[in-house]
């Protein structure tokens, strides 16, 4: 007994060109279900999202025949709101920005980059950190040291030396040599040529390590004999708490 085409599930109809589809489209985005129109999805022809629904089908379908996009579904509603009404989201800005980049919706990307959150991150903070030598590498080094010292411990610590100028770096050299002789690992940040202060950099370090899921705190490193200046001017201890 043959099954008429009108009773076939949607998932069996997507083998042809997408222009044969109904103008109403059902989507499964990371487990979140959405219903919209083909014209809404193709509103910006140069976007990756429009490309997904142009020409031959490029997406798989779920068991109910809905087109499946393997992305966080929670934030897709903000993408749809923008496509439907040009409404720029005011919530979850960072996450929506990631999705706008993925779907390559250029007008939304540009408007989000003008928001205080994205502007501050891209133009201010990241531009500052780009002037701090080996910043990303030092973050990873701190994490490796902390993990290596975490065996059978609730906390592990990492000593950080932060110097803003070449003069500060020279002042710290004896202390760094002393710590090295004591076989204490020290991660050195700086110097840099930018306005932000040492406390600003410490905030950035804490922010970026916490963004990786670690629970940390920072405190001045207590001076030991042999230091010729106040150690808390340049030396800090980052505490990683594991449980």
TrEMBL record:
One of its GO terms (biological process) is protein homooligomerization. Pfam families: BTB_2 (PF02214), KCTD_C (PF25611). Residues 23-120 form the BTB domain. Gene3D superfamilies: Potassium Channel Kv1.1, Chain A (3.30.710.10). It comes from the Eukaryota. This is KCD14 protein. It comes from Helopsaltes ochotensis (Middendorff's grasshopper-warbler).
């Amino acid at each position: 007994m043959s099954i008429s085409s009108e009773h076939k599930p949607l998932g069996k109809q997507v083998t042809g060109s997408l222009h044969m589809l109904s103008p109403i489209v059902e989507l499964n985005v990371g487990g979140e279900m959405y219903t919209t129109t083909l014209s809404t999805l193709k509103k910006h022809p140069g976007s990756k999202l429009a490309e997904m629904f142009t020409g031959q089908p490029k997406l798989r379908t779920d068991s109910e025949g809905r087109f499946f996009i393997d992305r966080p579904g929670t934030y897709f509603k903000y993408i749809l709101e923008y496509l439907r009404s040009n409404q720029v989201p005011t919530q979850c800005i960072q996450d929506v920005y990631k999705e706008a980049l993925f779907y390559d919706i250029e007008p939304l990307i540009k408007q989000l980059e003008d928001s205080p959150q994205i502007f501050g991150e891209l133009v201010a903070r990241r531009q500052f950190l780009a002037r701090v030598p080996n910043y990303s590498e030092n973050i990873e080094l701190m994490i490796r040291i902390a993990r290596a010292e975490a065996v059978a411990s609730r906390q592990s610590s990492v000593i950080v030396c932060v110097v803003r100028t070449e003069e500060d770096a020279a002042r710290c050299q004896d202390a760094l040599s002393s710590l090295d002789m004591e076989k204490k690992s020290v991660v050195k940040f700086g110097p840099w040529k930018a306005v932000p202060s040492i406390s600003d950099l410490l905030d950035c370090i804490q922010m970026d390590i916490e963004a990786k899921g670690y629970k940390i705190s920072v405190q001045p490193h207590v001076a030991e004999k042999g230091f010729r200046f106040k150690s808390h001017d340049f030396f800090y201890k980052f505490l990683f708490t594991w449980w």
